[in-house]
């Protein structure tokens, strides 16, 4: 059996800081907690009403009937809101010291200076630092925390909030609707192109807590944006819950690329709803990396409503010991001549599970639509498992779907060849794994690709003894 010790090293983000808590709602969720969150944020009445409706939906809705077993989740045991800073800052020196040191260790200030048009950092429930380049602001781009956008851009928020992912969508979207806090709001004006990405970084610091950011991105006609998010947390013996919602509106001829490198610690339950509405000739690209978390359910989606709209998802999931990755994509074709591509790469090891679950649906009016789906899995031992659950539906006579799937183990002939060229078994296996994930990593900006490759190498170090 191949030596894959390079795939399982220490989780380098397992450090804890003691930030002073200024306000918390305590454990549990009910109407009182929801009202406390809304009051603490000084929200308009319409948002409080939205939260309360979402809470009622959450209380009535069932857990997902598919994917990993979630019966261990005890919703009253989590803390749903924690504030550690008085305000969002635009100067790192003004951020509370314990919080600032966390993001310094994560390298966020350095990345901001070198690579980014703007950055938002969230610690527990709220954004603590936010800034963007002057030239980006001069182009009319709005990049704020979602909380700040509710105060500064109420018309845009009211027009788009909850329109792509309504709170009735699923139980975790309803939970987010009730207790959401933080996240990013972006509006890119017509025809504006950003050369450097905007980034958000999310950090959970405590155990038995929740993070429920809400991200809303509107890309106006002919505009173009790259957005990158990262997330980590220290390791605890008890789990925490992350249930985010991402809504994206891509208007006529616009393009949005949304890149996630999810590297939560293995005590995080990650339940995320991500969806984009794409209008005529628009393009939505999801680049979705899932390396961490204890339980993960995430299916980036495109609703290709406009004629000629395009969508793509390129994803990777690594399921290791005690991990259950249930990932995939959803493409709903409504407009004529729409197209979509799904490329899914899964790696499982040390008894982990990495599933693909996807839906491609060609609606009746989606004439001449087409979709291409590839699902490839690399299983590194006899303990691990991967299943594929595709759902392909064509409701007209002019559309077509291509679906390819493969499951394989490390090729012994490839190993023998590489070792005969002087490579150790570990280096040879590493080279094969890196080649397997290359379709995903090549889509990342260079600095993030380097980081991802390093994460994969660290994560694989003890896969097989």
How much strand content do the residues show? 25-35%
End-to-end gap: 9 Å
Helicity range of the residues? Answer: 10-25%
- Structural class, judged by helices and strands? alpha/beta
**Which segments are poorly predicted (pLDDT under 50) over 5 or more consecutive residues?**
1-7, 112-116, 460-465
Count the beta strands: 24
Mean pLDDT: 82
| Main sheet summary | 12 strands, mixed
Radius of gyration, in angstroms, nearest whole number: 22 Å
Count of helix runs: 11
Query: How many structural units, i.e. domains?
Result: 1
Shape: globular
Report on this model:
With 465 residues, the protein is α/β, with parallel strands linked by helices. The protein has one domain (5-459). Helices cover 24% and strands 34% of the residues. The strands form three sheets. Strands 5, 6, 8, 9, 11, 12, 14, 16, 17, 19, 21 and 23 form a twelve-stranded mixed β-sheet that branches. Helix 2 (45-60) runs antiparallel to helix 8 (171-179). The protein is globular. Mean pLDDT is 82; it is low at 1-7, 112-116 and 460-465.
Compose a concise summary of this entry:
With 465 residues, the chain is an alpha/beta fold. It has eleven helices and 24 strands.
Keywords:
465 residues; alpha/beta; 12-stranded mixed beta sheet; 10-stranded mixed beta sheet; 11 helices; 24 strands; 34% strand; globular; disordered C terminus
Question: What is the topology?
Answer:
Blueprint: E1 23-24, H1 31-40, H2 45-60, E2 82-83, H3 97-105, H4 108-115, E3 118-123, E4 126-132, H5 134-138, E5 142-145, H6 146-152, H7 154-160, H8 171-179, E6 184-188, E7 198-203, E8 210-211, E9 214-219, E10 224-232, E11 240-242, E12 245-250, E13 255-262, E14 268-278, E15 283-290, E16 295-298, E17 301-304, E18 310-319, E19 324-333, E20 339-348, E21 353-362, E22 370-379, E23 388-394, E24 400-409, H9 412-420, H10 425-441, H11 446-459
Parallel strand pairs: 3-7, 6-9, 7-10, 8-11, 9-12, 10-13, 11-14, 12-14, 13-15, 14-16, 14-17, 15-18, 16-19, 17-19, 18-20, 19-21, 20-22, 21-23, 22-24
Antiparallel strand pairs: 1-2, 3-4, 5-6
């Amino acid at each position: 059996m191949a030596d894959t010790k390079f795939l399982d090293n220490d989780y380098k983000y397992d450090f804890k800081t003691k930030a002073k808590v200024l306000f918390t709602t305590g454990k549990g969720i009910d109407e009182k907690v929801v009202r406390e969150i809304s009051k603490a944020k000084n929200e308009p009445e319409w948002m409080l009403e939205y939260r309360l409706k979402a809470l009622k939906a959450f209380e009535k809705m069932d857990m997902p009937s598919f994917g990993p077993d979630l019966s261990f989740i005890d919703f009253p045991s989590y803390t749903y809101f924690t504030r550690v800073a008085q305000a969002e800052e635009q100067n790192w020196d003004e951020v509370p010291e314990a919080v600032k040191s966390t993001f310094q260790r994560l390298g966020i200030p350095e990345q901001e200076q070198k690579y980014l048009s703007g950055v938002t950092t969230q610690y527990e429930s709220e954004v603590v630092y936010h800034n963007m380049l002057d030239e980006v602001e001069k182009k009319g781009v709005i990049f704020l925390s979602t909380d700040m956008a509710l105060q500064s851009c109420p018309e845009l928020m009211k027009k788009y909030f909850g329109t792509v992912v309504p709170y009735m969508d699923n139980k975790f979207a309803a939970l987010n609707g009730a207790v959401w806090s933080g996240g990013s709001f972006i509006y890119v004006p017509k025809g504006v192109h950003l050369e450097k990405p905007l980034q958000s970084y999310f950090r959970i610091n405590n155990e038995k807590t929740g993070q429920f950011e809400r991200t809303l991105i509107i890309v106006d006609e002919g505009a173009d944006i790259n957005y990158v998010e990262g997330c980590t947390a220290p390791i605890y013996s008890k789990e925490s819950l992350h249930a985010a919602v991402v809504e994206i509106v891509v208007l006529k001829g616009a393009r949005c690329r949304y890149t996630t490198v999810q590297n939560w610690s293995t005590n995080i339950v990650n339940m995320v709803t991500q969806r984009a509405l794409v209008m005529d000739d628009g393009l939505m690209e999801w680049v979705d990396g899932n390396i961490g978390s204890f339980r993960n359910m995430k299916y980036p989606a495109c609703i290709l409503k406009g004629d000629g709209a395009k969508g793509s998802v390129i994803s990777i999931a690594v399921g290791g010991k005690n991990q259950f990755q249930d990932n995939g994509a959803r493409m709903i074709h409504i407009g004529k001549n729409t197209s979509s591509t799904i490329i899914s790469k899964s790696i499982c090891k040390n008894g982990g599970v990495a599933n693909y679950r996807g839906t491609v649906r060609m609606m009746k009016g989606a004439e001449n639509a087409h979709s291409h789906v590839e699902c490839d899995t690399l299983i590194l031992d006899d303990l691990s498992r991967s299943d594929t659950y595709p759902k392909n539906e064509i409701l007209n006579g002019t559309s077509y779907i291509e679906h390819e799937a493969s499951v394989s183990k490390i090729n012994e002939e490839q190993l023998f060849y590489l070792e005969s060229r002087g490579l150790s078994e570990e280096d040879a296996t590493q080279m094969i794994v890196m080649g397997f994930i290359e379709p995903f990593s090549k889509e990342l900006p260079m600095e993030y690709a380097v980081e991802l490759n390093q994460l994969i190498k660290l994560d694989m170090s003890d896969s097989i003894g």
